[in-house]
Amino acid sequence: MKHFITATTLAILLLVLAVGSYGEGQNSRARATFEVHCYTVGEHALKGQPGVFSVEPGWRNFREVDRVVYDPAVISIGQMEQLLRQADTYVATVEDEEIKSDEKR
Question: Are the C-beta atoms of 60 and 35 separated by less than 8 Å?
Fold first, then answer.
């Protein structure tokens, strides 16, 4: 019985830590839009990188772009630009803005 209590306590502690970390990440989201030669190449270069929550390929003023939601505490605009350069698709950074708390929901 002693091991069961220890395992349960450990499970609860891990759950509390996971929920706490999730809540902190919600407070530091920003958005950036990158003009790229090929939005599919850009999406693959950024998707799955630490701190990148989502990459949405699309169009802006007849140009291909990747719209990124990211955590600026984990990855910077410069780091994402470098990843896109390494993939040989970076053209320009179009915009960078913090997401307001109402938009996070």
Answer: yes
